[in-house]
Amino acid sequence: MSLYTSSQFAAASATGTDWRDTSKAVLEKLEEVRTDGHQFNFGFLYITDHLADDAQSILNLFKSVLGIDHWSGCVGIAICTNGQAIIDEPAISAMIGTFNENDFCSFPSIINNVNGAKTTLSPWMKDHQPMLILTHGDPSGEYDIPSTVEDLYDFTNGFVIGGLSSSRKDHVQFSDTQQMGGFSGCAFSHEVTVASTLSQGCTHIGEEHTVTKTEDGLILEIDGKRATEVFENDLRLMAIKKIDRDPNDILLDSDDIPDEFKSLFQGEVHAAIPVQGSDQRDYMVRQINHFDQDTGAIGITEHLQNGSRLLFVKRDSETVQADLSRSLISLRERIIQQEGVFEPKGALYISCIARISERLENKEKCEVKLIEEIIGDVPLTGFYASGEINNSRLYSFTGILILFL
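RE: above sequence
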């Protein structure tokens, strides 16, 4: 596979039959630039879960061959590289870079509290103000993930960003050494200039609502009405708006259902929690995991209280592509406005594993290919997560791009 380089980073990836030949293919590419006078001292490393059992061997080999001690990354069911997402085969995607040695500090795995991170980061933070906190987390542990992320923000006051590993085997992380469980990562100082964007890939199918009655973690009433009634009414209004026809007029047990109505519900419908105070109408998507017509109750993968705001959203491949394009163009324009030029040196992309199955993810028009078309041939690495973290919040179904400027 191709090697992508800039003045600060180099990225390469490969697939193979096992960890040895896959590692060898990536390292041979990266060795091509290491002889050009670059003083690389940091690496980002992502491996598919086919290689999870060999994670320690891979990390040891990359350290030894490249002479780089500092690494950050994790395992994913799918990983990404320039213009391509790789899934269901042994694969490695890596990007090496050059930073001032004082501008970053890795921290080991933390669970439920940030004491482990404090031990490592506190001495560094005496002289450096954290700006970006890149984190990789284990989704399988019995700990409060949102609270741990919030605690990390409270301690560092940095922009916490990253994702939860996805794996059918061990949830391995890399933070200089191999880590298991909790959150690990790296803090970057204000001297490291970055810009990021988050793409939701969903469309509102109604207005914001207020949760007015909850019980045992279920939402019983929304806006004073049965929760299922409000949800179904939003779907009906979406149908009327999209196809100018009320679905109540269609006999659902008929074989003669219009094609435009069938296609209307291709995709997925989810609940979403608006982020209060956001000037971007930001929201966190949550799955609907309970629906009871008899009681009128709805359950989502988030515990809401009376008075909480809620809306419903629809996700499909067209929306994913349109929103990603919009967010990338907006990011490029923002950087040009702030920096005067658009010359990113390296990129990290963290996307939801659910987005890998979208129709967008094909060889001709994959998600990462769209990034390459809009952002350019910037060295890139990343992975597909089981939960994405942006600005200290846990998201689902999103794509997060980080650019090093």
